[in-house]
Amino acid sequence: MEADILRILISREALQARVSELGAQISADYAGRDLFLVAVLKGSVVFLADLMRAISILHRIDFMATSSYGASTQSTGVVQILKDLEESIEGQNVLIVEDIIDSGHTLAYLRRLLLARNPASLCICSLLDKKERRESDVPVDYIGFSIPNEFVVGYGLDFNEMYRNLPFIGVLKPEKYRV
Ligand code: IMP
Ligand code: MG
């Protein structure tokens, strides 16, 4: 599996250090308030698992699933809800937890959808940000790392449902996804 990786972009140690910082910052920012983490399946599960343990205040979690890229590496701009939240977020301080913001279509759509349910507040935390790819303007409150426009896998991120278990963020060899 690691032979399919061109190079490591963010090491396991760097991920751990940054996730700890994000957890501390979120804990301070939400101190004294209810916090509701909404993770977007499946890419954010590894990040969520580490982030929630770096958050020292009481909070709840829930999951949503949106349509994915399938075997392509391009966003279609069409977002479909495959799994919705189990609980109401009305009056809650919601923090969306995402693996990566690329075109921004997914988060822009989710943000509109969740805002319509009247949360007390709605913020976004994304582990990775590919700024130069942005097509939908969406405010991101917490960003782990800004990365260049390369297709990355690992730490939850997949290509064709694989490589999620790599403990680092790596750039996939182009011949692995070129069709
Ligand atoms: P957006 O709607 O274009 O912002 O796409 C967001 C989603 O696309 C992310 O949640 C990922 O699932 C997927 N994605 C975007 N870029 C990458 C990448 O480099 N590697 C793996 N998945 C990606
Ligand atoms: Mg995703």
Give unreliable regions as ranges.
none
Which cofactor or ligand species appear?
inosinic acid, magnesium ion
What is the CATH topology classification name? Rossmann fold
* Category from helices, strands and their pairing: alpha/beta
State the end-to-end distance.
Answer: 19 Å
CATH architecture: 3-Layer(aba) Sandwich
Structure description:
The chain has 179 residues and is of the alpha/beta class. The protein has one domain: Rossmann fold (3-Layer(aba) Sandwich). The chain has three helices and nine strands. The strands form two sheets. Strands 4-3-2-5-6-7 form a six-stranded mixed sheet, sandwiched between helices. It has a three-stranded antiparallel sheet with strand order 1-9-8, covered by helices on one side. The two termini are 19 Å apart. 28% of the residues are buried. The mean pLDDT is 93. Bound molecules: inosinic acid and magnesium ion. The site of inosinic acid (IMP) has 17 residues, from strand 5, helix 3 and strand 8.
